[in-house]
């Protein structure tokens, strides 16, 4: 029994309040999640109720009444049945307090944001691309030089990579790492002896490359128009400069900054104006500027455009890295000494933060938006800091076994990549403070030794392409957490190919198992991930647990447990609602399990060991007993019909029927020659399961083998091998000549029983898929045999790789290796009972049956094949369909493929969505899958659109939509009813008239207007008139 501590620990995870969450009203909540309704007081009362119950356990009715009265929660009958079965992990029909606590903890864990944030994708996918460096010496620095636009903005998708080796050789590379040109940086003062180049930095806004060397000089080279001309040389520095960083602003009025750190612990800053390229502009008679460091200090007029600022003795050791914190206008430098990292402005007055560690800091990186600072040093610890709190790190990430030489940030400082001296890359989750690769598949990723085993590694990260370029003796290219393009795909369900899809009718969930050794429990209605089980099957390799691909899965007869089989021959029993492994078994070491079945009281498994292995359901042994070895090659497919028959088929076309009750074979056929009757031989020698020396001894006896056979089968998961294993046996798009098809045995790749059909010698109940594209129909009756066959493909080299059917076996769903899904009507096909079929009803349900002007390949291939009736055909994936599952009550078909996705389709063929997609989806809306959308045929588009097709034919005369308009309406331009006034609407009303202005009144009281005459002698006095005026002339004599 759990104590009070259990109650408090549970509720510490919950985000609910302390008080009871039961409302005061009598309104009851319907089907509320149990972990969201419990508070601490409720948990105490529930525990007391369990203690008062008989044997401290409750029956379903007692527990339901307790939830109804205490939590005020009411459940439907089906929902409560599912809830009780999830809690009752012991399957005894009674639940106790411990089982309830476990269920609540699981609910809190699933609601944890960190669990919801978990991704299935590996941060580093696949192996690095290795290429020659084209240098004679190891690369000492690699950097990215972006193209600068006129507005001084940069784009990481345009530019060049630049590498420099210690002998002064500099190479320019394109974004796809194609060598463009080569130049050499050498001292102009040395003629014979050469120096080592310690560092290099590019200044893209002024087209300058700066190199530092052991001669204690700085060389500025002009790279305009693919030149490499030495412009400025600053010599005689006090110490050798070992690291540099360049920063420029989009505003041309802001100063550009070149930060240099030397071996004496000094930080020196060179600033200049970028207007007209500052000190690097071309001037007549000024080809090369040579000056000393002391000249910049004492006679700055020699290079007036450049200003030197020095921060002396800020560290007591070599400066390992320098950078510029633009948002704070601070210079950042680090060294492997107690005064480890300094963040200060140029004056050192406003901001001066010193981060101190005993062994110092070798490298750092920061995110200016999130204000996250990450450091790494010789103490093998990755530390996360708040830049404003230098006293103590926010988090310390342990796990490296060598000094850290480089750190990178992704996703606004939430993901950290660290590189150590022993060529190990680790990926860290800052919020969870854990190594992401430990959570996923492997502890570390090794950089190949040919890159540089004991050589210091230089690296650069491109945020746009998410590529990490590592340089030493050779160059390695790694893609870090490749992002999904929504125009190409809707996302992925697993990180590897899908192995099996199962629908559980009891809990109404979808279970998917992948080649990435992950099992996921999904809600088929919302697409939400319920439970995720990582590393379901593992094996020990060189002291490390390596995940093994899951190849088979099934439910128990009660649909409460899950059985999985793996490529290494192991079988495991799971509680898929909690993720707990209940039992582990094995058929044979490193022998792939191709199919497994759980019948009443027994577990059956078949695989590459060529016989059936039986386990007891309640047994404790890891090994089981073997049935007779009747197959001469690996068993690829099997199907069970409870409780009568088990059918198995092998790579060499053998088909054997077994009695499930006794394990005795009673019929044997060859699918290549189905009419051939093979007599069963019963002898003691044949009954021995160990007549062969092992599966490996038989793999070399046949010349025609599948591509995946031969040699030891490794289970190490990587991008190349997983893709090859997923496609090797199932995908074959090359059509063989007819004579070659007759010469080889046809392998069987998929089988399914139609459970509702009776066991009759003339009734076909077993569907078998052959490698030539045919689907054979067999009767499992002892006197039966082959009943017929039909063509299940319409593309050369294709074949059916997956089967599914509904509960009543009316429909047969087939998936092919090129990604097509077909639906066949199995009613009246090879049965002794005939049922009336309503074709109009089928046409309403399946738009594929609608008549086309030009029939597609799918319809043309079944012209001479009346039965079974092809109801639907469309392209669902670009790669092989590996598994199918049909949900009857939702009428949804789930298809899994080797393209890592599980997609949901309506029975009519319309696309609903992808499980685990970043695109939200619902059952009411349909859309097009982005990847298939680019290559889909018109038949597929017709199915996706629900039957709607464009009726436009090139060259046809366009229909006159105005043919009902009379000539009078055309002449008067009145078509139909007149429009309501105003015709132009209220947007084009005329403005109001201006106010009426009064007329201008002129003063006409005088007969004439007297002129004004200027006078040079003076002005006429008042009352006098000029002599030449009309008035004066009237009185003149």
From TrEMBL:
Enumerate the SMART domains for this protein.
Answer: WD40 (SM00320)
Write down the superkingdom of origin: Eukaryota
Spans of the WD repeats are 361-386, 397-438, 550-584, 874-908
> Region entry Disordered: which residue ranges?
683-715, 1014-1037
The question of whether ATP-binding is a record keyword is answered with no
Which UniProt keyword terms apply here? Answer: Repeat, WD repeat
Q: What name has this protein been given in UniProt? A: WD repeat-containing protein on Y chromosome
